[in-house]
Amino acid sequence: MLTLGTEEPGRSRVAFQVLIVATLLGLIASGQHSIVMRSGGGNPGMWHDLGMGMPYWYLWALFLPLVAAAARRFPFTPDRWLRRGFLHLGLALAIALLHSLLEIGIQHAFGIRHSSFGVFTEISLNRSFWQLPYNLLAYAAILGAVIATDFWHRARREQHAAAALGTELAEARLEALRAQLNPHFLFNAMNSIAMLVRKQDNATAVTTIAGLSDLMRSFLDDHPPQEVPLRDELAFLDRYLAVERLRFQDRLTVRISAEPATLDALVPNLVLQPLVENAIKHGISRRAASGRVEIEAESSNGTLTLRVRDDGPGPNGAATGNGAAPGIGIRNIRARLSHLYGAAQRFSLADAPGGGALATVTLPLRTTPR
Does the pLDDT value for residue 333 go beyond 50? Predict the structure, then answer.
């Protein structure tokens, strides 16, 4: 593709591309001139054919920076398109006339005579006006190519900026989620450890502190990945649940079921923990009876489905339902899924069959980063 911008490929590369295109077009024009002359019985020779074809396009290559500068200095806008159109038309007429005169002068210098009376004669002027429509079309084509190329570069820059902004936003949401998790989780963990110390259950307290240390190491990672294998997410979740089980004792029952084919699949970092925390908070902590949380992962037709189910009152009976504002964890999950997977993901939080809440995340099944 002929690149007319000067930022991304560099000016030398642009000049080389323009030279190559002008040379190809010049050779085509020279070939056409040769065919026309031979069909009329003439055979002026190769240098004459090249002299009639090459200067035309080399001169337009020379004028290209001027046309590009005019296109950027006087762009077409909805409120000024007519005025700018007349301005470019005037510039095109001036360049077209100058182009024709220079072309005739170059051909004359190389021995190609259009008239025996010199370069700038009535015949030369007639030839200039005869070429005017073609020169105006050449100007319009170059102008359109400059506008299209600038638009393409601008769109690419905006696309890259939007992607960078989206990545920064996703990282900020992940950081916000981790910041929310740290104090809330640490408070509960410290209470659980204090309870174990009061009971003089030192072995369990030491085990809990070690598990908490592993979790904190994950929290303190300066550059957490946006996606991790499901097996790593489940390992993190298991350490998190180990502390929560101490807090709820026999009131919390957890079942984790993941198909072997799903363990290497990539999932958003910390996608399951907020859903499990939400299930514990609204399904178990608000009642005296025991509760159950189930985490499932299965694959089907190139998709990965994650489910977190509890047997609590359900979304319509808690503050996380569709009719109420969800917490930061749920909002972050929705936003991060949308950014990472676009329309290829689905997320729902609804009443589970038989009671309780069911959170479902559906993702493309991938084992390698994009």
Answer: yes
